[in-house]
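Dig into this one:

. . .
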Amino acid sequence: MSKIQINESLEDYIREETTNILEDLKVNRTFKGYRFLITTAVLVVTANQCNVCITAEEIYSRTAKRHRTSREKVERNIRYVHENYQKKIQEYFELDKRISNKQLIFLLANEVEKRIRGKTKMFFKEQQKMSNIKSQEMGGK
């Protein structure tokens, strides 16, 4: 995967939404897997926004590099969160079967992308309303 440039505010938003989801799941913020899941969500959503395919191996390696640890530790810490919060994760994402680390990462990223699309639609609707109001005001004068 080539280097991907992304707007810092979008990355902040991805982090914020991922944090909100993890808090909804009541994941303990002190777990390293918590921080690793946030980073993985940023990587996956960024790749998706740029139409770039990213593998689980790349996700773990890039997350490890950002956190100055090993790929194996990233995978293990995410697995720890995923195994200890399995029931809450299944309820939150309305699943009836156990999921893997990889599935959790992509479920989180998918949920964040849904929220981004929802916020984007709201933003453009607000912009359109403001534009309509301005054009009405100018036409009325």
